[in-house]
Design goal:
By secondary structure, the protein is of the alpha/beta class. It has 2 domains: 30-130 and 255-323, 3-Layer(aba) Sandwich (D-Maltodextrin-Binding Protein, domain 2); 131-246, 3-Layer(aba) Sandwich (D-Maltodextrin-Binding Protein, domain 2). Helix content is 47%, strand content 19%. Strands 1, 2, 3, 4, 5, 6, 7, 8, 9 and 10 form a 10-stranded mixed sheet that branches.
């Protein structure tokens, strides 16, 4: 009996030691982190929004922790290659990735991806969002969103809109507008938003939806007429423009930027990264720099980001299905 009790105490003590050891190890990892440079993968080309955001985050981390952050741009295959690299990286906090709205669209458009955004990543923080501008050729007989909708209904199938490609955020934002208003406008995909804007200014297509920095100079010069922004509320970047949602209740489509780590990254490291990212998002310096590229800084908890991602994947899935968008066209 005594031997049985003694063995029970020994087993219990061993369990406590294991738990305490694991907690101490995790705390040590977080306390020592980062002890070497961090790689931050941006799923786009150098000079793009994710690349700029990555460099701003990197500067903040270096200032706080004294470690270099290397921004690794991976634009190929709609970001699939870079996302797979991040998903398969060691979950130690030394490989992070900037996930954007495009990744949620890719998840909806492609079958049999080598990763899952919800299964293979640990959310850290939402970092920013950017609305798009709906703009038309100056000779289009519409100066407001409601007038454009009325015009499209009076000429079903006769108006055309350009986008940077099938399944791109501007394409899907227009498809959602079509489904919510019942208008019939033809989609003309281009290889990038710049040729779509050029053809809109030339009158070959009647409208385009684009990120704010790309279209704003053409609007201010009179080569395009802006009708509204795609965010639910007016944007602080262009407060003079109404939100499309003021005319079409419930309409919203925004680009967004968030930071993730590979799944199973220790929670202590996730929390340490989150605290620094939220502080960065609240700093005037980063907010001003992001505003220069049309991004409104945000910040969130990991739990809030996980919930946001789930909603966005569902929303993009519905938009892709309704539009019939495919990777090859």
């Amino acid at each position: 009996m005594r031997a049985s009790k003694r063995n029970g105490w020994i087993a219990t003590a061993a369990v406590f030691m294991l738990v305490a050891g694991a907690a101490q190890a995790q705390g040590s990892k977080a306390g020592d982190y980062p002890a070497k440079p961090i790689r931050l993968i941006a799923l786009s080309s150098p000079g793009s929004g994710p690349d700029v955001l990555g460099r701003l985050i990197g500067a903040r981390f270096t200032e706080a922790w004294g470690q270099q952050v290397i921004v690794d741009t991976r634009p190929g295959a709609s970001g699939i290659i870079g996302t797979e690299i991040a998903a398969k990286a060691a979950p130690d906090g030394y490989t992070l990735v900037i996930i954007t709205s495009q990744a949620a669209i890719v998840s909806a458009m492609y079958d049999n991806l080598p990763f899952s955004l919800t299964r293979d990543f640990s959310p850290i923080s939402h970092m920013g969002s950017t609305p798009f501008i709906l703009a038309v050729h100056p000779q289009v007989a519409a100066t407001t969103v409601s007038e454009l909708i009325a015009l499209a209904k009076s000429k079903p199938g006769q108006l055309r809109f350009g986008s940077g490609g099938s399944g791109s955020p501007p394409h899907l934002s227009a498809e959602i507008l079509k489904s919510m208003t019942g208008i019939n406008i033809e989609h003309v995909p281009y290889k990038g938003v710049t040729p779509a804007m050029i053809d809109t200014m030339a009158g070959h297509v009647q409208m385009v939806i684009s990120v704010i920095p790309a279209v704003l100079s053409s609007v201010r010069s009179g080569r395009l007429r802006a009708l509204g922004v795609t965010s639910a509320k007016r944007s602080a970047i262009v407060p003079e423009l109404p939100a499309i949602g003021e005319t079409v209740p419930g309409y919203e489509f925004i680009g967004w930027y968030s930071v993730f780590a590979p799944a199973k990254t220790p929670s202590a490291i996730i929390n340490k990264l989150n605290r620094e990212l939220v502080k960065a998002a609240q700093s005037p310096g980063l907010r001003d720099r992001l505003a220069d590229i049309g991004v409104e800084a945000t910040g969130s908890t990991p739990k809030e980001l996980a919930a946001y991602l789930a909603v966005q994947i569902e929303k993009m899935g519905a938009a892709v299905k309704a539009s019939g968008a495919r990777p090859d066209r």
